[in-house]
Structure formats: C-alpha cells, structure tokens
User: Fold this.
Amino acid sequence: MATATLTIDLDALITNWRALDARTEVPTAAVVKADGYGLGADRAARALMRAGVDTFFVAVAEEGAALREAVGPSPIINVFGGHMSGDTDMMSDMMLTPMLNSIDQIVRHFEALPEHPFGIQLDTGMNRLGLEEAEWAAVAETVLSRSPKLVMSHLACADEPEHPMNPQQLATFKRLTDGINVPRSLAATGGILMGSDYHFDLTRPGVGLYGGMPFVEATPVTSLSIPVIQIRDVAEGETVGYSNTWIAERDSRVATISAGYADGLIRAMGANVDVFANEIRCPVIGRVSMDLITVDVTDVPEEHKTLELLGLHQSVDTVAEAAGTIGYEILTSLGARYYRRYKSA
Amino acid sequence: MATATLTIDLDALITNWRALDARTEVPTAAVVKADGYGLGADRAARALMRAGVDTFFVAVAEEGAALREAVGPSPIINVFGGHMSGDTDMMSDMMLTPMLNSIDQIVRHFEALPEHPFGIQLDTGMNRLGLEEAEWAAVAETVLSRSPKLVMSHLACADEPEHPMNPQQLATFKRLTDGINVPRSLAATGGILMGSDYHFDLTRPGVGLYGGMPFVEATPVTSLSIPVIQIRDVAEGETVGYSNTWIAERDSRVATISAGYADGLIRAMGANVDVFANEIRCPVIGRVSMDLITVDVTDVPEEHKTLELLGLHQSVDTVAEAAGTIGYEILTSLGARYYRRYKSA
Assistant:
C-alpha cells in the first residue's frame, strides 16, 4: 500500500471539547463545517455527541443534510450561511436551523417556512455575514416576535486577543442585543479564550477541537504517516525533483514518499517543512510534487517504511507556518486519498 | 443552495487529448492520477475511453483499483508508484500494471506475481522515482527476459523547454534503453510539446488534458460559479474580513460568496485574485476564509446571484499565479463540497 495513513484521534477531539467547555459557564456547541475541518464531520459529530454535544454548526444546508443523516434527529444543526434560494425543502426535511443573514433571507424564511426554527446572524464589524445595524433596527421587533432560537455574530480578530477590534465588536454586539430575551452567541475558539465577557449563552468552538491554534493547549488530533516508496543514493552535486531546485551538498540518501500536494500537503511548504523518522528530523528537499515528496534521510541510520509529517513531533500549526498559512487550511486541505483511521478507546 | 457549482467539460477534455495526440505519431495514454487531477478520474476516464484511450496511468494501486471499477476490464492501468508491500492482491485482482521503481520492487513483484505484467521506471536524473543507472545495469538482462510492457522515465524540467536538463535526461534515457525490444515512454504534456525526439512509443499527458499549462492552446475544462450569500454597503474607512486586512477607500458594495479555502481556493491567493460578474472583473478583498470570500462589487450595476472564479474569463493558471503556485495544484485542490456538473454533448 502506497497511500499514507491519516490517524484521527477521536478521544483527543473529545478532550479538546471538554477543555474548551470547562473554560466557560455556558453550553458549548461544536462547529463541524468543511467536513469537520477536513477530519470527517460524521465521525467527529458522533464522537462529540457521546461527550454531550447537542448543537452543531455547519456552513451550508447541504452539509447540514449530510450531518443529519449521520447524527439522527436529536441534535440541533445550525447553518451559518442561512436560508438560500433552493434550500427550503432541505431546511424543512432535515430539520436545519438557518442563521438568517439578510433581509432577503428573513423574508424568504418567513414566507416559505413560517413555523420553522431560525436564528439571526448580526454583523458587528467584520462585514462578511449578517445583518447590518440599520437593517437590524428595522426588523428586530418583527423578528423577535417570531422567537429566534439564537442571535449570533462572529469576531474578525479573535486569534489576536489584544486587537482593539475585539472589544469594539463586543460592545456592538451588546448594543444590538442587550435586553432581548433570546440566547446569544459570539465566541468561537478564540472568543472562548478571551474570557467570560465573550461567552454569552452558547460558545461554538471549531479549530480548537481539531487541535489547532489559537487553542495552545489543544491535544493533537491528527497524525500522518507516509510510506517510503524507495530510497536512493544521490552523489554530491546531483539534483533532485522538479526544476532541479535542490542540489546535494554532500553524498546523500534520498527517500521518495507517497504523498504530495494532491493530498493537501500544500506545495508552498516546499523545503521549509520536515518529516520525522521516529525522533529524527529529516528535511524535505526539492519541490513537493503532486503525489510524491523527496526527503533527505542521510542522517537516519536504518531504513524506515514510513515517515511522519503530522503527529507528536510536528503540529498542524508548525506545518502551516512552513507553508505560509494557518493551521485551519492545513486541516481542511487534508486529502481524499489517505487511508483514514479513527482512533477511540 | 449555497454550494458552488464546478462544471467539468468532458468534451473539452477530449478535445485536449485529441490535440495532444495529434502532436505525435505514437499512441497517447492519459494520466488520471489524483482523482483525474481533481476533476473525477471515473468520469474523465470513461469520456477518454470513448475518444479511443486504452491506457491510463495512476499514482498508487488504490487509485488503480477504483479506476478499474469505473472503466471495466479492457484498458491498461499503469501504476507509477510500482508494486508496494501489501499491493499484491490488488495488482492481481484488479489487473494493474506496476511500474517497478527499485530492486526491492522488482524482487517483490517477481516473487509474488511471476506471470503478471509489469513495467520499469528508470531514473534519468530527477532522483525521485525509478532505478538508478547502476541498478538498471545490474538487473536489465534478467528484467528484459521477463518482457516488461513498458520502460519509462520522467522529465524534471519539461515545463521549461529550454532547460538543459531536458536533452540531458533524453540522452540518459536513450543510453539506458536504446536497442531494447520494449515500448518506451518519456513524455508527459511538456515532453509532447518538445517534439518527436521525446515521444518514443507512448506519450502520457496529464495536466494538458485538464486545461493547464504548459499546453498553452488547451481548451478550458473547468468553470466555477459561486453563489452570492448577501451584498452589503460598506462605508469608506470600514474594514472587511479577518484581521481587518481590507479597508474601504470609498463607499463600497461588498458581496459575500459561498466558497473558501476549504473548497481548495487556496488562502494564499487572497486579494490577488478576481472573480467575474459576467464580463465585469471584481476584486476579491480581505482574506479568503474557510467557507466564504468577500468581493468588491461596487462597479457592478445589477445584483448577481453567482460570481465566476474559473471559466472563460479566468484560467486555472491565472488563479495559480495569484496564489503563487502552479495550475496543477489549483486543479487537484478543487474541493469535495462543490456540486459537480459534467458537461458532454
């Protein structure tokens, strides 16, 4: 077998959820959009349900429908993207709760599904999703008379706790919602870590569950072990890989391993990333190609059948830094070709 | 519906294969590894078979097994990664032809499946996959007595036709294989374009089929249309998106569209890329987030329900340039959340 093995530790996922839940006095939902940040929304959600999660968030109705089939009728499934044209049957049949983002969506929802649960997303400064302040002022009374299940907003700078945008969005959210008799939610992972002012009535962590920053204490959830296809001797002065970008500065041993950017190992990480032979750090050399990566294993005494790219020795965020991106993108890029092994006690 | 629609033009795929086939006097295979460069190996291969393709290449045995189920018993399926430990049953049951890369693989194959077809991959300087010259010298006679189906190698710099590595690898390949009575293959898309010296007995285009460089005359195969979730007014001086990276220099209209880096729209493209409202170019603003992208639509007179990121107005390679990568990675990153529409006359 030449496909790499992605191991997903469902116990670590639950440990992370419990740790974030313990930071607040309020209920904790779980965000499983983008197929559970690339790790499998169905398996992640079922594990989280066993730990007590009863509310999930997804990005779009189609994700909600697939999740409903995985988790059964009881959990609440909230849809950040709201109620789009063409979504009505899915919202209704799959019991999804749209977070309505605009007057258009509110009108669509009230006309199509007048008795169906909904939430409201307010924009508090990110200017991405949600009602503007003036729009909310115009419709709040009508909307509130229909008993929304949740009023929420999203922080633009929660990964930088000292950013002045955070207290500014908090103040706006309070100004727009203080005194209403509806549960409120503002905090994802970053918001949870900023303290109780941000917690309101429900938190909704995403990346922290999956072992990513800004939740520094997260338990790693993923490990990635990549088979070695072959090992060769490369003489000093020889080149390796596309466009000859790596030139051997000494007589070297080079391993070719079976994964590449088609597996989500972002091409930009190139030679900035390492892989591990047990404890020994081995530099990636040359370009990451579609299905293959070459590694300098000159300093590894014995031959290894696999090398590890993610795991205890290297986190999603370290790999992200090598690729010039954030851990979130490393997770959601993890590819379809891996053999996925779900670990649970 | 808030998921974006990825349209894959199977007729364009066939047009590209025919155009590349017409550049040579020899048979033309098709590379459909990495799930057909992200576009669906099963659909791509079945379309290509109708155009006359009878030989496919994949990266690993697992891909070959899935492809065999899609295309039935007749086509040849060659596996670049060769015969790995644990692959034997799949090779045999699914009638896959491994390109053996090392002495280890040759021994494994001859012991496990002595009568089963195989090919040989030689390293001619890329130092990634294939037998080294000295290894080939040691085993060539034995191997050739077993009648390999193909002897192949891969060019490291074929996307740069003037690179001295190309004639050097060509000379090495000829030195290692001239006079043998076995079909030979050296050229993928780039090699086809470099002329008949590189064509030998079989070419095996990949990226050119799917509309990517270096096949400049390729017909575009993909288009990507992304639904608008909402449009808002943003006053001069307001910020948009994560970390407030975009600040409105004028009163603006901002559309939030439903796709992001979890859909393979690489985060690094950020504000370097545009989307299109029919003919009108609209700049992406702020950061690409996981499920959402914000777009400046101030100069678009009417409201559009969707905006186009890939298609006639913008190629895979233009998007790649914005993201600091190559078209190949844009293709293989295209995500699982899209509604995929296959177009064929």
Remarks:
- The CA atoms of residues 20 and 146 of chain B lie 32 Å apart.
